[in-house]
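Practice problem: predict the structure.
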Amino acid sequence: MTGATRRRAVRRLSLGLAFASVIIALAACFPLEPAPSPSPTRSGAASPAAVAPLAPLVVPAVLNYCPLVDAVHYSGYPLPIDEVYICRADGTHDTDGTTSYGPWESAWRVDHPEGLLLAYRRPDAMKSRTVCSSHPRADPLIVWVHRNGVTTAYYAPVDGCGAPSSAAAAAYAHAQRTLLVEVDRGAPDPSKTGAVPRPSSTPSTPSTKDSSG
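Answer:
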């Protein structure tokens, strides 16, 4: 290697080192934002007493909106969603024992779910270090979210004893909703009781209201 060639090689190496130093300095001044990733489950966090409705859903018209899937915690990301539903099988009304009986199984569409989902984004509390009061299993207050043809059930975030937090319970109770289906599960089936209804009496199948159309 001649002296001129050696000098050119040293010059190129020096320029490369200088460029690398500038890049490192800029990176130190402007750190890159890390790619978002789901928050890992916190060790020691409380869990709900149940991940399915305490009163099981059985009516096909209701299950169309709220299928039988185990509920999970809401991921915490603002998801673009299609619809949010609430379904219950423990509804009560004033009944006369002749044309209505109960309990009622119903499906509602949540009209403006943003506030409800915001409350459900809160993390589960850490497990309580004190003894929790003995009470029946807390209702998980499940909601069903439909998105791109996939339905996911979410339970309300819980307190240290596994019951829904007060904020989540309030959001669930006050969520504006529209009734879609309502079925009286207590209506008798004459084929089992031996009764033969008259044309004007209660139908032989459970009464159903479907306002989805």
